[in-house]
Amino acid sequence: MGTASDGAHDKRPGVVDRPGRTAGIGVAGVAVTLAGVFVNGLAYVVPVLGARHLAPAELSALATLLALGAIGGVAGTGLQIAVAVHRARHGRAGTTRPTLLTVTVTAALLAVTLPVAAVGLRLTGPAVLLLGVLTVAVVAAGRWLGELQGDQRFLRLAGGMALLAAGRYGGMIAGLALGGGLTGALLAGAVTSVLVLALLVRLNRGAGLDPVAPTLATRTVLTASGATLAMLVVSYADLLLARRFLPPDASGTYAVGTVLTKGALWAPQVVTVIALPRLARGDRGTLRAALLLVGAAGAALVLAATLAGGLAFGLAGGPEYTRHGGLAPLFAATGALYALVFVLINARVAAAARWPSAPLWISTAGFLAATATVVPHTVAGIAGAALATAAVTALVTGALTVRRGPDAPATPTRPTATAPAVDRDTLRVGDQ
Fold first, then answer.
1. I need a surface site. Which of 41, 300, 325, 360 has the fewest CB within 10 A?
2. Burial group, residue 13, by CB count within 10 angstroms (0-12, 13-18, 19+)
3. Where is this region: Disordered (predicted)?
4. Residue-wise pLDDT tens for the chain (432 aa)?
5. What CA–CA distance (Å, rounded) separates 5 from 8?
6. pTM of the model
């Protein structure tokens, strides 16, 4: 991504030039890219398969449950980010206590909020219960993925990402393909997600703890989780509002459109995965390179949606949805803008910025108010409002990130000379 070679010529005190590091990062980057393609591919297959096996109302329910699961699972992403940033700065500290706290709090919140969502969004009790089990398993997995990411053990991280995706989405795909319907798909996904945790623990073997490394603070996990929650709430709010304000057929069409949004949002996530440890260690130029790569990927996806919108809608939902192809650029552009926001939010968390999620919550509140009062309750109306919200959010978050500066962590970094394991693991990618 343009920053891999920086590590090979790093002149900071305590960092030794090591020939071959660039090649190691290159191989690891390819592995994480392939894992990301696999993850997003499986996530894409779930609603696509659902569109072919479920009625429009059930398809909308599946898309809504996936959105709720993504929002509930942000605690796992926040845990992963916090662990990765802490390890990149300070070495291999213990993470058991903040993990247990994060999982416990998540389970308690889900127990309170999911029944309310079931009533308000017309979802069944078994469906939300199974979603809760699946979500808790995904949250717990964030610990082991974060340790691998912060240690820059990217090949094993790629394997962990693939395993979690196979558990999270593979089970649902199997349930749908076997005719289990909505409940059967969620049951299969919950079981496989729990089983995959044991494999992640085994994958992370050999990452010994540093007894003098500072313990990861719970506040760091809360900050990262809050920022990630705000990111997903603002990016998924349109789908939830479409479920609330549109009739079943129209909300099903909107659910198909959000497949394009999610594709544009998550397709370039590998850039952020590779960049995050370097952002945490104050590597200059990484943020600029990440934004350029993510922006280029988003522009390409928007162009493709503009030129072949009918094909994109047909691939996402089936032939009956191709007539809505003119809306494809709206959904793709929204996802592309939020992909940039995701990079910026990670940069702000890595730089220990205060209240990194504040502009996202403000944008969400504005979007909710506008949709409830002035936005036309049509697919095009809500999609256009979502695009405008994404553009404003990207501009505001970008301005705050530039003013804050991404290159100066608020807490002192651990001297590289006392924690050489990161560099060794990066070099020995063949052993990962």
1. 41
2. exposed
3. 404-432
4. 333 333 333 433 333 333 334 345 667 778 888 888 888 788 888 988 888 888 887 888 888 888 888 878 888 988 999 999 888 888 777 788 888 999 999 999 999 988 888 888 888 888 899 999 999 999 999 999 998 998 888 899 999 999 999 999 999 999 999 888 888 999 999 999 999 998 998 887 765 666 666 778 888 888 888 888 888 788 889 998 998 899 888 988 898 899 899 889 877 888 888 889 888 886 768 888 999 999 999 999 999 999 999 998 888 888 888 888 899 999 999 999 999 999 999 888 888 888 888 999 999 999 999 999 999 999 999 999 999 999 999 999 999 887 755 444 444 444 433 333 333 333 333 334
5. 5
6. 0.73
* Closest by Cα among 409, 401, 407, 152 to 284: 407
Taking residue 212's Cβ as centre, other Cβ atoms within 10 Å add up to 11
Residue 12 lies in a domain: no
Judge whether 324 lies within some domain. yes
Q: Residues 372, 374, 377, 379: what is their CA dihedral angle, to the nearest 10 degrees?
A: -110
Residue spans of alpha helices (H) in 204-308? 218-245, 248-266, 269-280, 286-307
**Closest residue by Cα to residue 161 from 69, 27, 42:** 42
How many Å apart are CA 349 and CA 344, to the nearest integer? Answer: 9
Give the separation between CA 56 and CA 133, rounded to whole angstroms.
25
Could you tell me the residue range of the domain that residue 71 belongs to? 20-412
- Cβ proximity of 379 and 350 under 8 Å: no
Tell whether 273 is covered by a domain: yes
Structural domains counted in the chain: 1
* Closest C-alpha among 187, 98, 184 to residue 139: 98
- Examine residue 163 and state whether it is found in any structural domain, yes or no: yes
Q: At what angle do helices 328-350 and 309-317 cross, to 10 degrees?
A: 80
DSSP-assigned states of every residue in 312-327: HHHHHH-GGGGGGGGG
Q: Residues with Cβ < 8 Å from 214, sequence gap 6 or more?
A: 90, 93
Residue 123 carries which DSSP code? -
